[in-house]
């Protein structure tokens, strides 16, 4: 499969690239100031907002690990989804894009989203609110193929690659066998690639949790 990975030199994107190459996929890396960190791939030194449809080439799937960060105007997270719409417009390509746990509902009542919980970080709330607004925009386009993938509340950079995860499809926080809303970067990357390979969860928001992490691995 031919893939384009946006943010390929970041914490999540680099894991997606490595796992994709290990699975035998052909990868094109979109990596601003990559500094040679995307070995084994074609590298385009651009940020998301500089991209054109021509940059996608013959890729069937786009995986976006783009994150605006905590210092940027949170509106950039909505604008990212507007850019995805532009890149997909008139094509039959699919994008699998990172979203945020903060944009999910807190429980099955769907009465409150994570970012609306009293005491929630104002910075994170701004990011999560704009992610939701961006997802709302792409939902309006019935002609586009996309999946928005949310991590769990705890998104563990150092956690192991268990290759064992669960998927929630109701836009709400989910919990693993340990009773935690938890996922590792490695397992999230695996889930995104599985979604790509199996063409799962079209036009849906999903969330991923690592099933369990043994105490000695945590």
From TrEMBL:
Its protein name is: Rrf2-linked NADH-flavin reductase
The organism sits in which domain of life?
A: Bacteria
UniProt-listed InterPro entries? NAD(P)-bd_dom, NAD(P)-bd_dom_sf, Polyketide_Oxido-like
Pfam families this protein is in? NAD_binding_10
Single annotated GO MF = oxidoreductase activity, acting on the CH-NH group of donors, NAD or NADP as acceptor
Q: Which residues form the NAD(P)-binding domain?
A: 7-198
């Amino acid at each position: 499969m031919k893939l384009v990975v946006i943010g390929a030199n970041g914490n999540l994107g680099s894991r997606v690239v490595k796992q994709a190459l290990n699975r035998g996929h052909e990868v094109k890396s979109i990596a601003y100031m990559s500094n040679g960190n995307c070995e084994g791939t074609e590298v385009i030194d651009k940020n998301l907002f500089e991209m054109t449809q021509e940059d996608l080439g013959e890729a069937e799937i786009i995986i976006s690990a783009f994150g605006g960060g905590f210092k940027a105007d949170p509106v950039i997270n909505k604008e990212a989804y507007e850019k995805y719409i532009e890149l997909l417009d008139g094509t039959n390509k699919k994008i699998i894009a990172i979203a945020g746990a903060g944009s999910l509902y807190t429980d099955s009542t769907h009465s409150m989203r994570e970012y609306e919980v009293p005491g929630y970080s104002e910075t994170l709330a701004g990011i999560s609110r704009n992610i939701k607004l961006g997802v709302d925009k792409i939902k309006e386009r019935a002609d586009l193929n996309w999946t928005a993938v949310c991590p769990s509340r705890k998104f563990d950079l150092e956690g192991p690659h268990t290759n064992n995860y669960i998927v929630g499809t109701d836009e709400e926080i989910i919990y693993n066998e340990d009773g935690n809303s938890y996922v590792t970067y490695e397992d999230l990357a695996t889930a995104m690639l599985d979604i790509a390979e199996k063409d799962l969860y079209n036009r849906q928001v999903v969330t991923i949790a690592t099933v369990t992490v043994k105490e000695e691995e945590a």
